[in-house]
Amino acid sequence: MSAELFTAAGTIIAVLALLVAYLQLRRTPSLPKLVAEEAPGKREGGNAGAAQRVKQVHHNLRARSRFIGRGQELHRLIEGLASEYPITAIEGLGGMGKTTLATEIAWRLVENTALAKLNFEAIVWTEDHDGRLTLDDVLDAIGSVLELPYIKSAPLSLDRKRDEIEKHLQRARLLLIVDNIDSRTSPEVLEFFERIPSQTCKILTTSREKVVQGAWLVTVGRLTPADGTEYVKQESERLGLRLVVASDEKVMAIYESAGGNPQAIRLTAGQINSGIVTFAEALDNLRNATDGDIFSAIFERSWAKLQARNIHAANALMVLALHPASVSRDAIEAGTDVHDDGLRDAMKGLGDLSLIENATVGPTGTPRFYIHPLTRAFVSRQLAASAGEHAIMESRLLEYYLSFAASYSDTYGATSNVQHLESERTNILLFSAAAHDLARRTGQTRDWLRVIRFADTMAQFLWGRGYWRDRLVLCERAVEAAESLGDRVTLARHQAFIGRIYVWLGNTIRATSHLKACENALNGATEVDRAIAKRLRAQLASASGNYDEARTLLQQVLEVAPITTDDEGRAATLIDLGVLAARRRLFADARVYLEEALRLDEQFRTTEGIAVSLSHLGNAVFELGDFRLARAHYERGLTLAHAVDRLSARGRCELGLAKVCVVERDFDGARRFAGLAGESFGRLGMRDMAEEARLIVASSEGRTTKRAKPPLLQRQAGPETTAVIFDCDDTILATAKSRWSVLISTAADFGVNLDERTIRANWGKPFDQLIRSLVPGLDQDQFISAYRDAMRIHRPEPVPGAVELIRDLWGKGTSLEIVTSSSRDIAVQDLDALGLTSYFDNIYGYEQTQHHKPDPRVLNDPIGGLIARGFEKDQLLYVGDSVRDYRVAVGNSVAFFAVLTGLETRAEFVQAGADGRRVLPGLMQLSRLLRA
Asked: What is the CATH number of the domain that holds 884?
């Protein structure tokens, strides 16, 4: 939301002094840490150490191709990367497999199957096509893999961007791969190679000629006869050819005629497979071609046959050539205007000819295709000679990517939309630029409107993910389009968007210039339209300390703000007002505004909006001294911010949790969360916030965390100490009230019509059995994952009196445990959200025992553990809401209290044999009884 602009300006808070003051004035519980932050296996006794030994390698690698042989080349490549040489160069003729070799070693490094000492933390893949790769492209790719979005998003000069990247490369072990460089490669890229710190980073290049001097050289020539014949056989098997069962002489003939070139073998096998040439013709073609024109001969023949026999396949190949990287099937369909059987036949034809390769690597897992650089170069020449066909395909693709962006534009309301837009971001931005070029050439209204729509549909995504420079470019194009169309409101809106970005970046001079342009365009407009400019003026006023003016303007905006989930809506305006009030240290007022914003976000179920609201609300609540509630807000906000990749909200929540940890004297946690916050703000280029996080890390160094239970009440120990075992669902957590609706909505997302009657009939079963009964036939892991995500969005509710009773019992020295039929992880997730987890010594879910309620043996481990700690059975008390709980207690001769906060009645408990005097309406009554 646009209110995040407020957090960027201002001086750094005196963090250490503030937190010390809090330590002196307030005493609060040591609250539970995020489950998501724990090492794998920590809660379940898993092999956490093994998990920690395998370090994740960040990368942007292309999909892996089939790989055969090249043992000597691989060995020499590993030697080069492990040597003192800063650059390792793979050289060889076109089609020899240089890219495949580079891809293979990169994936082996990712999978930790190369050498232990080649422990790269990041691998960056870049490609040069006809000298079009710029230093800006290389720096953006490095910034993306290192998760530094401000490198690409902020309008940095090239020198500043290079300096920022070089600073990070001083401490990051990185392998930069530049595929297909040649004499046309930008000199700035080659100069950058010399600046990369060789003590931490390595460079790997592929080329057909010697471009880089003084590199460790790996020459890739023809496949060995053994590898080459094996490759011929594998290609034959893949395509279903009979060559595989032919004589060894025939297989060797293909190998020899292709000169051992794997790409020539692949394409020739494809031509034989498709019937373009006979086996004999294929051999003749290869033998008569020289090294320089072997591929031209192959492509010319394939292209002629495609145009004669399957024009759809030829068109699909041209669509692929219009894209610099991989392409989805839907985009190919849109660009060719070929559908169903026609498209399937076209793609099969290209596959049979080995002209396309599959690539499914990406956030959505959608099938994608790409073509070899040699193929792209040939097809691009055909496109250049067919301007009319080029224009038609480009026009179709413009409409496709605009429609795609519009379909997934709502990143606030649908978490999955973020992944879809990220998977096509490069292509969308490429064709948005093409739309702008087209509009400039034609000047037609339809083309200018398309430019504006690209800017509008990508707005939420680019802003929330920190791609500010991309949004600047789109907004600037939209301004040009609006001026051409005479659309003053659209002109003002995008001038305001540009101004907000500059406020965020701290450039108030540029922001003021765009404000004036915005206000001029709105001269004589309605109050609703003028709110665009008022919001920007308020943000500038706040940045300069004119808080009264900012508040007046924002109140005027609020009066006309629509109840929407975008950056112009009521929730966004309330956040603006809340953050402004917090700046004035009116934290109670800030809390009112921010809670109302959160209510609206939750009403519309906008994950991203909720994350942003919680990150700001946590700050207000923290300043008011309710550290437990602040932690709950920060933890929930952090979970949701991760889900939608909202980096600024993530950083605020991490920083807030660090402050809470300092107040709790959990200095280990403070260092951890502050370190994460510093990384988040550093990635965004928010230096002031990153410095605040650094100060917390520095102030926590050398200070030891005091591991203790929450000192809310002075805990006592002695002979009167007892232990209470609680059921969880509907005993501590109001599950039927707050979770059944989530189960129903999650099932609906999977196309299952689930109702409360079905849930009621199965309630109380072990969690895995419950899910199988409620949604039979669905993938259980997928459903549970979706259910947990939905639970994170909707805050759990405790039953009345639960929080007070648990705190009171713990403070008196009572040992507390939970035994639930639910999943332990899910129970902990909800208890974490309420700040209750750390009060319990043990939490047993259905996963921890082979016995389940009402089998009394479900308490074997809990009771055994308590007895081992010195408790007697007569010191134990079991509390639950079902007859199943009662039977478990009776079977273990343990005292029992029933609470009527579940589905069963007093009569049902009495009929089962329970003492009616121990059947209570709820935990508040139990609390009074225990105190008496």
From this structure: 3.40.50.1000
Looking at the structure, do residues 154 and 286 belong to the same domain, yes or no? no
**Are 201 and 292 found together in one domain?**
no
Q: Are 335 and 322 in contact (CB under 8 A)?
A: yes
Is 186 contained in some domain? yes
**Hunting for tokens 């004999």 — which residue is that?**
280
Q: Are the C-beta atoms of residues 383 and 390 closer than 8 Å to each other? A: yes
Task: Give which of 130, 138, 234 is closest to 177, Cα–Cα.
Answer: 138
Strand, coil or helix: 867: helix
Number of compact structural domains in the chain: 3
What's the predicted TM-score (pTM) here?
0.57
- Bigger pLDDT: 332 vs 357: 332
Residue type, 692: E
pLDDT in tens, 582-625: 988 899 999 999 999 999 988 888 888 899 999 999 999 998 88
End-to-end CA separation in angstroms for the chain? 51
| Residue 21 and residue 85 in contact, taking contact as beta carbons nearer than 8 Å | no
Please tell me whether the peptide bond between 854 and the residue prior to it is cis, using omega within 30 degrees of 0.
yes
Residue 575 has pLDDT above 90, yes or no: yes
pLDDT > 70 fraction of the chain, expressed in percent and rounded: 86
The residues, any chain, with a CB within 8 Å of residue 339's CB and separated by 6 or more, are 333
Q: What is the pLDDT of residues 471-492, one digit of tens each?
A: 899 999 999 999 999 999 999 9
The position carrying tokens 């023809």 is 222
- The first and second tokens of residue 884, run together, are 């199943």
Residue 226: the pLDDT is 80
Q: Strand pairing of 357-359 and 368-370? A: antiparallel
Token representation of residue 108 = 């082996």
> How would you label 589-598 residue by residue, b for 16+ Cβ within 10 Å and e otherwise?
bbbbbbebbb
What tokens were used for 585? Answer: 């240290």
Which long-range contacts link 270-274 to residues 24+ away (Cβ below 8 Å)?
270/239, 270/302, 270/352, 270/353, 270/354, 270/355, 271/298, 271/301, 271/302, 271/353, 272/241, 272/243, 273/239, 273/240, 273/241, 273/352, 273/353, 274/305, 274/349, 274/352, 274/353
Please count the helices (runs of H) and the strands (runs of E) in the chain. 44, 15
CA–CA dist 888, 418 (Å, integer): 47
DSSP state of 382: H
Residue 109 domain boundaries: 71-219
| Residue 307 is assigned to a structural domain of this protein | yes
Q: What is the CATH number of the domain that holds 215?
A: 3.40.50.300
Q: Which of 110-119, 602-611, 708-717 has the lowest mean pLDDT?
A: 708-717
- The model's pLDDT over 347-388, given as tens digits with 9 standing for 90+, comes to 887 877 777 877 654 444 567 887 776 777 778 877 877 878
Per-residue pLDDT reduced to its tens digit, 512-528: 999 999 999 998 888 88
Q: What is the DSSP string of 720-784?
A: T--EEEE--BTTTB-HHHHTHHHHHHHHHHTT----HHHHHHHTTS-HHHHHHHHSTTS-HHHHH
Q: How many CB atoms lie within 10 A of CB 779?
A: 11
Mean pLDDT of the residues in the chain: 80
The pLDDT tens digits for 637-687 are 988 888 888 888 999 999 999 999 888 888 888 888 988 888 888 777 677
Average pLDDT on 65-73 reads 78
Determine, yes or no, domain membership for 262: yes
User: Do 190 and 260 belong together in one domain?
Assistant: no
Q: Alpha-carbon distance 758 to 154, whole Å?
A: 53
Dihedral, 921, 925, 930, 932 alpha carbons, nearest 10: -130
Task: Supply 173's token pair.
Answer: 């072990």
Task: Give all strands of the β-sheet with 201-207 in edge-to-edge order.
Answer: 58-59, 122-127, 174-181, 201-207, 87-91, 216-219
Q: For residue 747, tell me if it sits in a domain.
A: no
Can you tell me the distance from the alpha carbon of 745 to that of 739, in angstroms, rounded to the nearest whole number? 10
Chain CA centroid to CA 696, Å: 27
